[in-house]
């Protein structure tokens, strides 16, 4: 997936989940943050950030969106929409003979990110973007997610009824030693994920090639549940 016109700036502060103040060429701009998660270890004062410019003529209050941030020498994509977009491009490589990719498909009391058909296979997939990294260990979530627990449990039910179930962690950076659920932040999610894995739900994680203007899913990452 690729972005449009981009610029670089210097992060100043984040008044709330949706906006930030960024210095762009010496001008303080109020910009949109395309990730409502905490991202406290990423959005630190002075951090170099990559922003996408709003399309010409767009009727909106902000002219820029933060899409990525440098953590040391590593660029981390922090756009919450990019994992699903990248997954849409990658799904045909993940499954042979894909004939249908339907986003936002309801099953039971949940709406999963994707319903996929490939030959005789019927697959529900939930995609989770991961931006939290420490010493090469990537974790999800960075804040409690009751919705995430609900999705995991619903996938177990779908597998019991004959579907395939996948939870796809898209690690929005290039380097990771392994992925593990964030037991410190949300032990219930970690427990639900382990239970799902033991009951037929496939848990997969992939790193990405991240550039200022693009993000492409790259290769499998080790998982420790």
Distance between the termini: 29 Å
Q: How would you describe the shape? A: globular
Instruction: Specify the CATH class of the largest domain.
Output: Alpha Beta
Number of helices: 3
Number of domains: 2
Strand content: over 45%
Helix content range: 10-25%
What CATH architecture of the largest domain do you see?
Answer: 3-Layer(aba) Sandwich
CATH topology of the largest domain: Trna Endonuclease, Chain: A, domain 1
Structural class: alpha+beta
Rounded mean pLDDT is 95
**Count of strand segments:** 15
Helix-strand string: EEEEEEHEEEEEHEEHEE
Q: What is the CA-atom radius of gyration, in angstroms?
A: 18 Å
Layout of secondary structure:
Elements: E1 6-13, E2 19-24, E3 27-33, E4 48-53, E5 64-71, E6 74-77, H1 82-94, E7 98-107, E8 110-118, E9 121-130, E10 132-134, E11 137-140, H2 146-160, E12 164-171, E13 178-181, H3 187-198, E14 202-211, E15 214-220
Parallel strand pairs: 3-5, 9-12, 11-13, 12-14
Antiparallel strand pairs: 1-2, 1-4, 2-3, 4-5, 5-6, 7-8, 8-9, 10-11, 14-15
Walkthrough of the structure:
The structure is a single chain. By secondary structure, this protein is of the alpha+beta class. The chain folds into 2 domains: about 5-75, OB fold (Dihydrolipoamide Acetyltransferase, E2P) (Beta Barrel); about 80-220, Trna Endonuclease, Chain: A, domain 1 (3-Layer(aba) Sandwich). The protein is about 20% helix and about 45% strand. It contains 3 helices and 15 strands. The protein has helices at about 80-95, 145-160, 185-200; strands spanning about 5-15, 20-25, 25-35, 50-55, 65-70, 75, 100-105, 110-120, 120-130, 130-135, 135-140, 165-170, 180, 200-210, 215-220. The radius of gyration is 18 Å and the shape is globular. The model has no long low-confidence stretch (mean pLDDT about 95).
